[in-house]
Structure formats: C-alpha cells, structure tokens
Design brief:
It is built from eleven helices and twelve strands. By secondary structure, it is α+β, with helices and mostly antiparallel strands.
C-alpha cells in the first residue's frame, strides 16, 4: 500500500463519518474553527472546515462518498481493510479542517495539504492503525519527540512519506509535508494572523456545517480573463463558499473581484451561462433546479446562491444516477388542455 494510498485512506476516515447510520445533530453550538482552525499555519492559502457530525447523513455527501468508492474498487478494498484492522467508529470524528499551502508544482492546487481532525481519538490506537497500514506494504512508522510533550510520527513507504502528531488529546494533525505539519503544531503565526485569509474567513457563513475560504491561484485568475475575452481586468482574488446539505442543499459562493466594474461583468457573464445551462437542463427535467440559482453583484463581490429543498435534491440525485428523475415534472398550466 503506497503512502499516497495511506493519505487517501485516512481521508476516507473522515468520509466514513459522513455516511454513518445514526442521525445526530450538533449540540455544542461551537463554530468548527475553535477546534481546528487555530492549528492552521499562516502560510495557508485555502481552508475548508466541516462539522462532520452535522453533515455525515446528508444525501449528497452520502452519494459522493459512495461514488468515490464505486469508481475506485481498489480504494474501496483498502478502505474495508482499514475498517477491519483499525475497528473504526464513525462517531469518532466531530470536526475536520483541511488547509492547502502555497503551490509547489506547475499546476494550481499543488501546495502541501494539511488535515486537522478532532473527535474521540486515542493517540496510541491511531498510531497502531497507521503502523498496520504501512506494514502491509513493507513500510515503517517511526516516532520522535517534539517540544510540548508531543510526538511526531513518520509513516514511510518507499519514497512516500506522511507525518502526523496529536496537537492535543482529541486532535490529530496529518500531512505529507513535515514543515507544514510542524508549523501547525508550533506556536508561530496561524491562519487568523494572515490578514487576507482572516478577512475572507470572516466573510464565510461559519454557522453552515461546511465552509471554505481561500486565495485563487493567479493562473486560474488569468484563465478566466481569457475565457471572458478580456472583459475583466483580473479574475477573482479569493473565493468564499458556504454549504449546508443537511436539509436539501443550500449553497453560497462569493467571488471577490478587483473592482466593481469587473464584478458587474462577471455577474453578466454568469447570468448568460446560467441561461444556457437552464436550456440544457430542461432536457433532463432539471430546469426548475437551475431556476433556483441566483447571481448578484455588490460592489466588488459577486454572489452565487442556490437553495434546493429535499425534493429537489432527490430529483437531482435520481437524474445523476440515470433514473431520469424521481418524480414527474408538472406541465405548465394549460399544456395538456384539448381546447373548447
């Protein structure tokens, strides 16, 4: 089992908690960043925060995890082996924070990735689980002491490495970049000390069970300028997203533009594309769902919003699964009339 597979499998620990059988609502009322964002280094470009206990039963999340496992049988097998070896309990994980650092490769999104998971975790059990995973591929798990009575673990398989440590008894920090992990465990500047990132985080609806904020890679910004034929001076500086899939699906996506003129141009472009999508969606009976999407510009902010009720979500999932829709779409008034 490669260390890349280990990283994916550990990510699926989070995914498993999203598809648990028992219903459970959030009772703490504490925003998820209290238990995870404080560990994210100030160098992070993007943060994604999830209240796992609130979204693990959401139909869209459930379907996404199922599709991931269906499309990758090898990953599904490794995940089953992981569950058997580690005796995982889907109720263990409460909050998860993902952070992406500055890009390091030729493509956007290639920066180091950090995961901070909080819940009912036991360091010795977690380390034993990882040791069993790497052992199957001939790898090894070593540990070395850190300041503050912490232990940094290195899971190695060939030339692939993953690092993890417990920041406190209920919080594990994982990543493939040692410096990013140790920065998270240290006392240096954190995400909210990054002025830009703190501003973007402040614009997110942190009462939503899933939200994200972060800088847009310059290559992506430049790409949008080309796509829009130079009608904007620059693409969005940052993107803020908030998502609630607990009852239907409520989504808000905000793009921070360089100025109000660019925001208006993006609003106009977005509405044109939405109209084209609406016509294409009619063929699948999804026209009413596209109608629930709105695009507005407010100064330099462009806001995309969508609100689907549970019936909309069921219909969308049915169409995506090839069922052609979960219910008959009602015809417009008078469409079936035979006349006088």
């Amino acid at each position: 089992m490669s260390c890349r597979s280990i990283w994916v499998a550990l990510g699926l620990i989070v995914a498993s908690s999203l598809t648990g059988c028992s219903k459970k609502s959030s009772t703490s009322g504490v925003p998820p960043e209290i238990t995870g964002l404080a560990a994210v280094p100030a160098s992070a470009e993007v943060v994604i925060v999830a209240d796992v206990a609130r979204i693990r039963d959401a139909p869209l999340i459930d379907r996404a995890v199922d599709q991931l496992l269906v499309r990758d049988p090898a990953l599904a097998t490794r995940w089953q082996d992981l569950q058997a070896a580690c005796k995982l309990d889907v109720k263990q994980f409460k909050h998860v924070v993902l952070a992406i650092g500055p890009h390091q490769g030729p493509q956007p999104g290639t920066g180091p990735v950090l995961m901070v998971a909080t819940g009912q975790l036991v360091e010795t059990d977690f380390a034993a689980c990882v040791r069993a995973m790497v052992g199957k591929g001939g790898g090894s798990l070593t540990a070395k002491p850190m300041s503050g009575n912490k232990t940094l673990y290195e899971a190695k398989d060939g030339n692939r490495v993953m690092y993890f440590a417990f920041g406190r008894a209920d919080t594990v920090v994982l990543g493939s970049n040692e410096a990013f992990v140790t920065d998270a465990l240290g006392t240096g500047k954190k995400a909210l000390d990054n002025r830009d990132l703190a501003t973007w985080i402040g614009l997110a609806d942190q009462h939503m069970p899933l939200w994200a904020a972060g800088r847009v890679d310059p290559r992506v910004r430049d790409g949008l300028v080309k796509v829009m034929g130079g009608k904007i001076s620059a693409g969005p500086q940052a993107i803020i997203a908030s998502f609630d899939p607990t009852s239907g699906a409520k989504l808000e996506l905000d793009a921070i533009m360089a100025n109000g003129s660019d925001a208006k141009e993006l609003e106009s472009y977005g509405k044109t594309q939405l109209g084209l999508m609406g016509m294409a969606a009619q063929a699948k009976g999804l026209g009413t769902i596209v109608d629930r999407v709105s695009i507005t510009a407010d100064q330099n902010l462009v806001r995309f919003k969508a609100g689907l009720d549970p019936d909309d979500v069921n219909h969308l999932v049915s169409v995506l699964d090839g069922g052609g829709g979960s219910a008959q779409i009602s015809p417009p008034p008078g469409a079936g009339s035979s006349g006088p």
